[in-house]
Amino acid sequence: MSGVAAMLLAVAGGVYFFGNINISIKAGGAANATAAESGGSAARAPAAPPAASGEPSVELQETQLGFVKVEPAVERAFPVEKESVGSIDFDEDMTLQVFTPYQGRIIGLFAKVGDNVVKGQTLFTIDSPDLLQAESTLIAAAGVLDLTTRNLARLRELYVTRAVSQKDLEQGISDQQTAEGALRAGRDSVRLFGKTDKEIDRIIAERMADPTLVVPSPISGRITARNAAPGLFVQPGSAPAPYAVADISTMWMLANVAESDSPALRKGQEVKVTMMAYPGRVFEGKISTIGASVDPNTHRVLVRSEIEDPAHELRPGMFATFVIRTGDPVRGVAVPLDGVVREGDGTMTVWVTTDRRRFVKRTVTLGLRRDGYHQIVDGLRPGELVATSGALFLSNALLTASR
After folding, report:
1. What is the pLDDT of residues 335-389, one digit of tens each?
2. Sorting pLDDT into bands at 50, 70 and 90, what band is 325?
3. pLDDT at position 357
4. Which of 136, 116, 168, 128 is nearest to 313 (CA)?
5. How far apart are CA 369 and CA 376, in angstroms?
6. Residue 53 has what pLDDT?
7. What are the boundaries of each domain within the chain?
8. With 382 labelled, which of 62, 149, 311, 313 sits at a CA distance of 20 to 30 A?
């Protein structure tokens, strides 16, 4: 008894609601129910041509037309696209570990994680005994060259007066040339530590070695890791690297694409990426890598795209949606999302009219979905008048009257 009572209450409530809005219901071309007119003053609309047999219809009164918006069905272009979700990451091909070229103890740090740096900017400095040794050798070579140059000048004067033999003069020339070669080698050795010619000239002129080795950033980018600390002894290639720098002009988007969609993807295809962090913004990119295997657990393929980020707005870990066009756009009849109703049996329906009063429910087949529109593959022709808003209202009215 309680179930029957609940059903009667539900039907009574629906009749009360739709009765207040003056609805007339027709099914199979014949009137099934007519709602009471509000206050008895609203006039029923003129009868429209009867619906085809088996096609339920709803006829509205004048006061009910504001609940439904009617527009002709038009054709639109629907792009053929695949969509997936993923996340942003640094471009690992442009992420570098910055090691010291020579061993030493860190004496200064000049960048923190998250800082943007330019190529050549100092990251840290170390006290390098190797640099000290190279500069000492350079100073000694400069002194020897100075000595041999003065000695050669004296030998040339003495040779004019025959005070020395030609052999002594030639030996002096050889010593001076050897000293010049040693100085050039010394300058090149110090230059390997990053010293400029101006700094090298100052070392020679002041006869003072500077053991401070400057380690610059090899690229422009962002500091992604720092393991350096003052006083820490570091060696070339010894992990972990004191710093890691990533070029952020391009970023990666890593997406796991369904196995069924993977055959449509190709390396080099253009992609459009949207971010939760930047609603309404679209970032352009291209597919750079498609995974060589399918994950046996998820049956998805890893797809990596390079995304242009000239303003350095993207950060690793950001959630993103990846859309890629896999074919030429398809033209088809389009109906707004609010104009399509999913019925209880899973079929999709629209409400068609010829006089904007009587609406006939029609089953349709949907295709693509884009920008707030459904593509109607079958069941509707261009130019037919269709309820683009209020379709659910019409379906509920029909359902209530049938109960």
Report:
1. 888 888 888 888 899 999 888 888 888 888 888 887 788 888 888 888 889 988 8
2. confident
3. 84
4. 116
5. 9
6. 45
7. 2-77+330-402, 83-91+248-329, 92-123+216-247, 129-210
8. 62
SS3 sequence, the chain?
CHHHHHHHHHHHHHHHHHHHCCEEEEECCEEEEECCCHHHCCCCCCCCCCCCCCCCEEEECHHHHHHCEEEECEEEEEEEEEEEEEEEEECHHHEEEECCCCCEEEEEECCCCCCEECCCCEEEEEECHHHHHHHHHHHHHHHHHHHHHHHHHHHHHHHHCCCCCHHHHHHHHHHHHHHHHHHHHHHHHHHCCCCCHHHHHHHHHHCCCCCEEEEECCCCEEEEEECCCCCCEECCCCCCCCEEEECCCEEEEEEEEECCCHHHCCCCCEEEEEECCCCCCCEEEEEEEECCCCCCCCCEEEEEEEEECCCCCCCCCCEEEEEEEEEEEEEEEEEEHHHCEECCCCCEEEEEECCCCEEEEEEEEEEEEECCEEEEEECCCCCCEEEEECHHHHHHHHHHHHC
Query: Residue 35: CB partners within 8 Å, gap ≥ 6?
Result: 15, 18, 19, 21, 22, 23, 24, 25, 401
Q: What is the C-alpha to C-alpha distance for residues 379 and 377, in angstroms, rounded to an integer?
A: 7
**Of 13 and 392, which is predicted with more confidence?**
392
Give the torsion through C-alpha atoms of 226, 228, 234, 240, to 10 deg. -30
Cβ contacts of 323 within 8 Å, gap of 6 or more: 81, 82, 83, 271, 272, 273, 274
| Sequence letter at residue 307 | I
CATH class, 129-210 region: mainly alpha
Q: How far is CA 165 from the centre of its chain?
A: 80
pLDDT for the residue numbered 124: 94
Q: Under CATH, which architecture does the 83-91+248-329 domain have?
A: Beta Barrel (2.40)
Q: What's the CATH class of domain 92-123+216-247?
A: mainly beta
- Token pair of 130, please? 């190797």
Which one-letter amino acid corresponds to residue 226?
R
pLDDT higher at 264 or 19:
264
